[in-house]
Structures are given as structure tokens and as C-alpha cells.
Amino acid sequence: MFKSKKGQTSVGLITGLVFGIALLILAVIIAFVIVFTLSDSDLLAENRATAAVVNESGDRTVYINATGYQLDGLGTYYVPGTIVITQAWNETADGTVVPSLIASGNYSVSSTGIVLNATAIEYSNVSLSYTSSVYTIEERSKDHLTGNFTKAVDNVSTKIPTILLVASIVLILGVLVLLVGAWQRMRIGGGSI
User: Fold this and answer.
1) Would you say residue 149 has pLDDT above 80?
2) Distance of CA 12 to the CA centre of its chain
3) In 3-state terms, what secondary structure has residue 134?
4) Domain spans of the chain?
């Protein structure tokens, strides 16, 4: 009259475990696609602001020589490769000479903001004005999301052996329960548990 549901419960547990892992893997793949599509599309770069620094000198001695000068006024979120020096003035330390404009062919600026001389002429006291593009809030959020997502995948990947061990133990126990259920239905061995 009453049927045993032990075998059905085990099948449901195993099926749920397999489908749960499959859905988790599918969700991670979809999240990867969304995050990396956003980061590769450059849709967020359209509204970048421009930051300007006028006459960088102040308390520091700004120079143009072979050792290189790191621009100090770059913001935290400037876009590498967008730095443009608009003016470079040669000044003297004692202030006796009127500042003179340095031609742009006499210096170069790297994508990270290091100013070097492009000729043999070195300038020991300079005033620089320059502009650079700044990442939008959306771009920074996307970068943080990508970084956090990658870090999360790294953290989870270290735990995968443990998760697979638990899943395999549950699977083995489920198979054993199914076998015991089948054994009881067939009444093999004539004994009872």
C-alpha cells in the first residue's frame, strides 16, 4: 500500500546537486560575458573630463633633463597616454632672466607622465602646463567590478577541490542509498536491514 520514497529522495538530491552546480557555472559564465563586454566596448569613455594643470612648479624644482621629471599634478584617475604639455617655460633660479617658451621638440612626455629632454639641452628650472583625460566614474566602477570579479574567481578556485570533494561524497552516498533501495526491492540475499 505505501511505497518507499527513499530512492526518489536520493535521485532528487543528486539531480538538485548536479543542476545547482550547472546553474552556478552558467551564472559565472554569463557574468563574465557581461563584465568583459562592458570593459571591451569603450561605451563608458565618451564623457571623459579633461584635467588641466597650469604652471606646475611651486615649491618643487621642475626640470627637463635625461633623468626625467615625474609630473606631480596628475590626478589619481588620469588616463595613461592622454597627457599633453601645453606650455613649458624655461626659468632661472635667481629670476634675473625673463622666462622663455621651450619649443615642444625639445622635450617629450611618456604615457605615465615622465618628462624627458628630447635634445642635448637641459633645463634646470621649468614651469609646465599640461592637460590629461580623466576616467569617468562609470569607467572606474567597471574597473573595480572587473578587479573584484577576478579576485572572487581566484578565491573560489582555491576552494573548488573542497567543494568537489563534498559533492562527490554526497554523490557516492546517494548512489549507495539507491543501491540499498534497489537491493531491498529485489529482496536479494533474503535478509533484512
Assistant:
1) no
2) 39
3) strand
4) 6-43+139-186, 48-135
Percent of the chain with pLDDT over 70: 81
State how far the Cα of 109 lies from the Cα of 27, in Å rounded to an integer.
44
Q: How far apart are CA 79 and CA 48, in angstroms?
A: 9
pTM, 2 dp: 0.56
Q: Which of 156, 149, 159 is nearest to 33 (CA)?
A: 149
3-state helix, strand, coil in the chain (%, to 5): 50, 20, 35
User: CA-to-CA distance for 123 and 116, rounded, in angstroms?
Assistant: 10
CB 62 within 8 A of CB 128: yes
Parallel/antiparallel/unpaired status of strands 126-134 and 49-56: antiparallel
